[in-house]
Amino acid sequence: MEINLVSDTVTKPTQEMLRAMFKAEVGDDVYKQDPTVIELEARVAKMFGMEAALFFPSGTMANQTAIKLHTQPGEQLIADKWAHVYNYEGGGASFNSGVSCCLLDGNRGMITAQQVAGSINDPEFYHSPLTSLVCVENTTNKGGGACYDFEEFKKIRKVCDANNLKFHLDGARIWNALVATNDNPAAYGKVFHTISVCLSKGLGAPIGSVLLSDKATIHRALRIRKILGGGMRQVGYLAAAGIYALDHNIQRLADDHRRAKEIGAVLAQRSWVAKVEPIETNILIFSLQFQINEAVLLDKLKQKGISISSMGHGKLRIVTHLDYREVMHTYVLETLEKL
To answer: Is residue 227 classed exposed, middle or buried when 0-12, 13-18 and 19+ CB atoms within 10 A define those classes?
Structure first.
């Protein structure tokens, strides 16, 4: 039995999802003639209280499009130092949009309105880059699946409005956050100028993210997506997977969260573990005692058929997901107890 807990991006479509994909009615999406894509876009936009949406092949492309929409070359965005848009998008903010990043030292990947307010450059001081955008991530990836308090989003939006800034949400794991906090997704549309949501992590679709905003902004995004090479043809086969995921795979995320917490409880009792970070959703980060060789531990787990990821410096990550079933979970718990 091979158990991959490296990421929730490793999931594969179920037979039921594949059947939905094969049955999809498709058209040419570059001409905006794919009915299944149109259905998915309309549905996700409505869920989050937004006017319009646009389907993308990846969350990175959706985020990079949002940055391009809201900034001009030479300007600056504000984000947490662990933000995906800075750390894991290949330097795209500088390459695609010509912007720099003001990185804040947040709490588990989350920043506050007070931090944002204190980091905005004086727009009259032309020696510094013009601050034009704030990017946040929910849940936080490198922060261990932490969820923002929605009230903090509202406070940050007030700071943005007062300083003529745009506000973007990288919602790669927004579904996990919604299940964990029971927040209303429609409220998000009132706070953010743009939101990217991913279908290919916890929801189990093979590919796809959706960018949400008002109609005029999404119309502009269409051109940027084309420039970035994101125009696709009969992509309704993939959009159908997203629709299936929305119908069947949101509420079951609670199982992923439970399993992550149960693994964390076992790890917290192990003598070779120094610390287990707080666990809110499906990402678990823990640190080893200084005398424990990280490579040896990873190899021991690999020999048992369990793969997890290293974050360096004795810090390791486990991510639960759709393909991690209860029988696997029982085996992992027993293996960790005996290790």
So the answer is: exposed
